[in-house]
Amino acid sequence: MAKKAFQIRLPDSTSPLQSDVATIRVDSQAAADRDDLETLSLVASRAGNAILIMDASGTIEWTNDAFTKLSGYDPADAIGHRLDDLVFGPSTDAKTRKMIAASLSRGEELTIDVLQYRKDGSTVWAECQWIPVNDDTGTLSRWIVIESDITRRRQTEEALLKAKRSAEANSRSKSEFLANMSHEIRTPLNAILGMTELALTTDLSREQRDYIQTVKTSADALLELLNDVLDISRIEAGKMEIEEVDFNLADVVRETTKALAVRAHEKGLELAVHMPMTLPQELRGDSTRIRQVLFNLIGNAVKFTEEGEVVVSIEEQWRTDTEVCMQFSVSDTGIGIPADRLKKIFDAFTQVDSSMARRFGGSGLGLTITSQLVRLMEGKLWVQSSEGKGSTFHFTLTMKMAADRSAANVAGSPSKTSREAEDSHSKAKQELTGYRVLIVDDNATNRRILNEMLSHWGLVTTLCDGAATALKELESATRNNTPFDLVILDAMMPVVDGFQLAQMIQQRPDLKPGTVMMLSSADRPSSTSKCEQLGIKTYLVKPVSASALLEAIYSTLETPQSPDSDSESSSLSDNPFTPAEKPLRILVVDDHQPNRKLVESILHRRGHHVRSECDGDAAASACKEETFDAILMDVQMPGRDGFSATEEIRASEKNSGRHTPIIALTAHALQGDRERCLAAGMDSYLAKPLHAADLLELVEQIGRGHVLQASEPPTKTDLQRNEAFNIESALRRMGGELDLLKEHIGYVLNDMPQLMRMMTVAIEEGDAKQLQIAAHRMKSLVSSYDHEEACELAQQIELDAKLERLPDAASRIEALRPLVQSFARAVDDYLQAN
C-alpha cells in the first residue's frame, strides 16, 4: 500500500496568521525597548556624574539627580532653559563661552573645564563633555552633556601654580640680593686690593711684604668668588643676556689663552691651541661669553693639571652659507674625574671630591656658570674623563657668519678679515712654498700643530722630538746638500733645552742650519737676552697664533715684505699729540658740550683746524659754507640726528661731485647701528668713550683719502672687573694729558647733576624724548671712565625711554642716582688732589 505524502502550506502575505505574528514581534520589541529605556534612565538618574539631555539649540530637556546636586537646580528649574544661561556667570571665562557657542553651532563634540555658578551663587569647577546626537539623516537632534566636579583638582593646581610663582619670585629676589651684595662688597674690596698693591711698591721688610702679599692673594681669591656669585645670580635672575656682534674667532682664542699662559707656564705645563687653517674666522655671536666659557674651562684644566699639557682644539662640525657649527674641546692630563661624579660636575658648589676646595681652591661655581652660558647660547656641553688620566670638556656652538666678511674687524683687533686672511695665506703659499723647516719640540701636540700650520703655507717640514734627532737631521741635510732654511726650537725641553741646542748648532759650522727661531712656554726675562747672545732674531711665547707665526717667519727669513706689515704705520701710539705733518680741517658735530670740547681739544693739540656745531641742521649748513677734510658726526642728537644730517650732506654733494668722509660717533654700539651708518652714507664708525690715539689715527687716515670700512667697537671682557670705574683708563684715552683729563672732569662735575635733574623732570612730565637724550649723554660721560654699572643703567634708561617704558626708567634712575653721586665725589677728590 503506497504511503500518502503530507504537505504543509504556509499562509500567504495577506493571511491573518502572518499579520498576527508581525504584531507580536513589534509588541515584543517595544516592550524590550521600554525595558532598555527604563534601565538606561535608571542608570542615568543614579549616575555619579551630572547628565543633561538638551535639544539641538541647547535647551535642557532632562537632567539627573547628580546635576541637581552639582548645580542646586531641580529638574523643574532647569528644563526649558539653556545651560549657559543657567550656570554661567561673570567669572566664567569669555574664551570658554565662545568655544561652547562654536561647538553648538557646528554640532561638534567638546570637552572643556568651566567655572559654573550654583543656584545659591557659589561657584564650582566642572569638566563638561558635550556630545552631539544625530538622527538617521545625519541632522543634529539633541545634545548629551556629562559633567564632573573638578573643583578640588583645580584648587590643587592653582595652589601649586601659586607656590611655583612664589618660589620663582623668591629665587629672583635672592639672586637680585646676591647681585646687589656682590656689588656692595666689591667696592671696599677694590680699595683693599688697591691699597695693598700700593703698599707692595713701598720699602717693606721681608716679613711685612709676606703679610701684605698674603692679604692681596686672599683679596684676589675673594674677588674671584664674588664675580662667580654675581654671574650665577644674574643667570638665575634672568638678567644674563646673550648678544650678537661680529668678532674674530682667532682673536678671542688668542686673547683667552694669552691671559692663562703665564699660569700654565708657571706650573711647567704646555698650553697648545689647535685651530685648522680652514676654519671661518669672522663670526657673529657673543664673543664675551665665548671667551668666558673658554677662560673657565682652560683655567680649570690648568688648575687640576700638575704636569703634561692643556690643549684647546676647535673643529668644524658643519657649515652653510650663513651658519657654522663648531666643537670646542679643552683636554688636559690632570687628575681626571671619577665616574660617579661626572653627572654632578656641572652642579653648583660641586668639585671632584671634598678635598679639592682645600687643595685647589675655587668656589665650585665655574662649571655651573659655564654650562648655563653654553645653554643660553643654545649649545651643548659635556665631559669625558677617567680618574688619573685627565679630562676633556667639549661644547658645541652654532654661530652665524659675520654679516659683512669683507668689512674691517672689531676696532683694536690686529686680525684680518676672511678675505684679507685668504689673500695673506695665498701670498704666503706663493712666497714660502718649498722652504725647508726643522721643528724641534719634545711635545707631540705642539709638533702636530706647527706642522699643520707650516704645511698649509707650503713649507716642507721635518719633525724632531729632541736635540739628538735634530742634530742627526741637520747632519743628513748637510750631506745631501739640502740644508734647512729655518730651524724652530722649543726653548724648554728635557736633557738638552732649546738654548743649549742652539749653542751646539752654532759650534758646528758644518751643519749649515739656516735661521733659528725660538719658541717657549715661559716668557722669562732672561730668555730675550739669551736669544740676543745666540744671535736668534725671533723669540715667541707659546701658544703661538697662526698670524703671529707667519709674521715671525717672514721677519726671520727676511722676505721682501710680510703680508701683515703696514707700510703706513703710525707713530700716534707713541705720542698722539706730536704736531701733524699736514693739518686737516675737521667739522665736529655733537650736541653734548663735554664730548664736543674733548674732541676739539684732542684735534687742536695735534694741530688740526676745527669747527664745531651742536646739531644736524647746523652741520648741513656748515658743509654748504665751506669744505672739510673729515666730519665727526654724533649719531644721536635732538632735532635732526646724525643719520638725517649725513643723508642731506650726501644729497647736496651729488651735484658738486665731492665726497667728504664722515665718521660716526656713538656712545654705544646698538644692534643695527653699523648697518644704518653705511646706509646713511657714513664712511667709518668710532665708539665712545674715545681714545685720543684711535681718534687721531682714524681721522688722519680717512681725511687723507684712505678708504676705510665702518668698524665696530671693541667688545668688553668680563675677565677683569676690579673697579667700579677707572680714572687712569680715562687718562690713557686722553693720551696721558692730565690737563685734558682735568678739563673733562670739570664737564663731568658740571653736567652730571644737570642730567640727573633733566631725567627726573622728564619722568614727571612724561617726556620720553627728553629722557632719552639725557640718558644718552649720561652714558657717554660715565663710559669714558669705564663705569660699567652706571653705563649699563644709563643705557637701560635710554632704551626704556625709546620704548616709552617710563615707570621702569623711573626705578632705574633711582638706582643710578647714588652711583652718580659717589662717582662725582671720587672724580672731584681726584681733581683736588692733582
From TrEMBL:
Keywords: ATP-binding, Cell membrane, Membrane, Nucleotide-binding, Phosphoprotein, Transmembrane, Transmembrane helix, Two-component regulatory system. Residues 36-107 form the PAS domain. Signal peptide: none annotated. The modification 4-aspartylphosphate is found at D490, D634. It is an enzyme of class 2 (transferase). PROSITE patterns: HIS_KIN, HPT, PAC, PAS, RESPONSE_REGULATORY. Residues 436-557, 585-703 form the Response regulatory domain. The modification Phosphohistidine is found at H776. SUPFAM superfamilies: ATPase domain of HSP90 chaperone/DNA topoisomerase II/histidine kinase, CheY-like, Histidine-containing phosphotransfer domain, HPT domain, Homodimeric domain of signal transducing histidine kinase, PYP-like sensor domain (PAS domain). Residues 737-834 form the HPt domain. It holds the Pfam family PAS_9. Residues 562-574 have a biased composition (Low complexity). Gene3D superfamilies: 1.10.287.130, 3.40.50.2300, Histidine kinase-like ATPase, C-terminal domain, HPT domain, PAS domain. It catalyses: ATP + protein L-histidine = ADP + protein N-phospho-L-histidine. NCBIfam families: sensory_box. This is histidine kinase. It comes from Aporhodopirellula aestuarii.
